[in-house]
């Protein structure tokens, strides 16, 4: 069985970013679960701020640049996806939505997705249920039950979770994502026939042997 692909998409705009901080914590939770279960995996982070201009150009031209094309391909090939957005005007950011707008239709069908968001106040926590969960349900993804929202006040010193409840949500969300990756991941996705191509000499020998 090929390694599972874990991809994290983060839409933070600043450096450093609380959105990236939350993304890293959730990725760490999922990778610990994968390691504990002795599952082979690859993990990758897609930082959307690096593709902002290319996303805008793709929206008007219909063609992604090379770097954006690689990011879109990585997301489409994910066996498990973690998505984190800052809250803008009580919803996901425009950059976050635009990236998923240019993703090929059905790319996320049956893909397990962990949704998360950051904001300045706990009052925006419902963005997970009224904006993110419907978006990924529409895209055909399987959204894990536990979503994670972190306000500025949730972070303690050195970027650690400031409450035990938030830390528990990290662990629970990561566990639920990996549970679904095992059910809907590499075992159900067809292997890429070009990932390990048969050498031409071997193919030619087979043809000669059958003639």
Automatic annotation (TrEMBL):
InterPro entries: CE1759_FMN_reduct, Flavoprotein-like_sf, FMN_Rdtase-like_dom, NAD(P)H-dep_FMN_reductase. The keyword Flavoprotein applies. One of its GO terms (molecular function) is oxidoreductase activity. It comes from the Bacteria. Pfam families: FMN_red. Transmembrane segments: none annotated. This is NAD(P)H-dependent oxidoreductase. Residues 6-154 form the NADPH-dependent FMN reductase-like domain. Keywords: Flavoprotein, FMN, Oxidoreductase.
